[in-house]
User: Which sequence fits this backbone?
């Protein structure tokens, strides 16, 4: 049980063991694998679709559903998340807010570029960095999974450059390892510049690194053709799946802890800056309740603006759901989405287009600005982000899957000094002072 001292009263919430949280994440992952197998008449057909996905170009924007249908896509998503969950477990990760966010982010981007082949060299690079620093891999495991934002670099080198396989295979592994090796130090540096106002800090780091990689590639004659492969044929299926999964999170929360709603109200008062761990602060039950509500809200938002769900949109929804364990909630994402919606009225992009839907969802990386400085400045951040994100993709040749994180990092870098000097942050209620947390077994 966890006890919090508030005005002399003890407030308790149910503590989920790491094993229980791992089992829930594993059940979600295995259910996705099951859907992948169930959706294809033959086992061989499902594996063929999966292979088609693994070898296909995956620079932005390639919707996995366009390439591999439900079977190949859901197998890739589910099996990759099983791997992530197992690696977290065997490394004794606490399954805190950030690690839950990572599982769902990997889940989301497995719809949009990450796959069972291209993530491993980068993970290995971070692992070798941990060994170089003589520290446990656990200290860097969340950075390792987020660094797989750059996995398209591995796919491009392995399958899609005009060199013999004897060159492509070792070069893809070595470059992936090198990228993974340099991410931890670079990410720590760039985190300081945004002061936690960009939830997708590694996206900014990845944008800088892959911009350099792309420039080197181009100097050797590499040219990429911008891709826009998006499928809308599974709109109804995806809608039902996300609504069901979100509803199950809500039901699990309420059944598991009678105080979940009370702690959700506390959670919604937090600004949500990067490294805010809702699981530790407000309990796992309140956190998954927040995740479920945010998932339903995202679907309703897309319906409201007349959009359709695709693999690209689902990637954004899962990422927002994931970071609802580590920063996002209804009150701080709405200002960002409102600023993007307002900007679409005057700018070149229609609000219901998939590209703008992606910006609306991934742009919630800037939610801490809305949470810390209020609705108006959150909306301004979203307004600026809408313009910037459409320009940054060309810098890294689409090989940084967290392009919105890159753009959000630039927005945060631009706005943070001004906000710190001229805007008074929103004052937190006294009962959110968490220095009196007492943990007991």
Assistant:
């Amino acid at each position: 049980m966890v006890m919090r001292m508030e005005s002399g009263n003890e407030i308790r919430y149910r503590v989920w063991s790491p094993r229980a949280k791992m089992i829930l994440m594993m059940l979600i992952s295995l259910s996705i694998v099951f859907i992948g197998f169930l959706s294809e008449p033959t086992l061989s057909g499902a594996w063929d679709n999966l292979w088609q996905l693994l070898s296909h170009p995956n620079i932005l924007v390639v919707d996995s559903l366009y390439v591999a249908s439900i079977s190949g896509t859901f197998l890739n998503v589910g099996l990759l998340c099983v791997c992530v969950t197992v690696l977290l477990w065997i490394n004794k990760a606490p399954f805190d807010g950030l690690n839950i966010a990572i599982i769902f982010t990997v889940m989301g981007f497995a719809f949009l570029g990450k796959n069972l082949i291209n993530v491993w060299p980068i993970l290995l690079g971070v692992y070798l960095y941990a060994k170089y620093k003589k520290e446990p891999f656990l200290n860097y495991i969340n950075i390792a999974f987020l660094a797989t934002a750059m996995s398209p670099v591995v796919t491009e080198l392995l399958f899609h450059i005009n060199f013999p396989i004897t060159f492509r295979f070792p070069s893809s592994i070595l470059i992936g390892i090198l990228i993974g090796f340099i991410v931890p130090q670079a990410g720590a540096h760039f985190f300081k510049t945004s002061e936690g106002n960009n939830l997708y800090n590694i996206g900014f780091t990845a944008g800088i690194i892959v911009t350099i990689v792309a420039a080197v590639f181009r100097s050797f004659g590499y040219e990429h053709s911008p891709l826009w492969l998006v499928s809308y044929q599974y709109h109804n299926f995806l809608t039902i799946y996300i609504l069901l999964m979100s509803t199950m999170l809500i039901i699990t929360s309420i059944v598991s802890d009678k105080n979940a709603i009370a702690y959700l109200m506390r959670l919604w008062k937090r600004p949500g800056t990067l490294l805010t761990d809702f699981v530790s602060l407000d309990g796992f039950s309140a956190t998954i309740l927040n995740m479920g509500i945010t998932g339903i809200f995202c679907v309703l938002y897309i319906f409201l603006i007349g959009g359709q769900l695709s693999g690209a949109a689902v990637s954004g929804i899962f990422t927002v759901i994931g970071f609802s364990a580590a920063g996002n909630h209804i009150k701080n994402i709405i200002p960002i989405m409102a600023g993007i919606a307002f900007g679409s009225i005057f700018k070149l992009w229609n609000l219901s287009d998939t590209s703008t839907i992606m910006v609306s969802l991934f742009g919630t990386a800037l939610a801490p600005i809305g949470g810390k400085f209020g609705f108006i400045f959150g909306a301004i951040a979203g307004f600026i982000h809408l313009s910037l994100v459409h320009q940054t993709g060309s810098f890294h040749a689409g090989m940084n899957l967290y392009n919105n994180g890159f753009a959000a990092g630039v927005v945060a870098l631009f706005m943070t000094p001004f906000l710190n000097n001229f805007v008074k942050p929103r004052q937190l209620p006294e009962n959110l002072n968490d220095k009196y947390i007492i943990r007991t077994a």
Remarks:
- Residues 1-10, 434-441 have pLDDT under 50 and may be disordered.
- The longest strand covers residues 2-6.
- The CA atoms of residues 31 and 229 lie 26 Å apart.
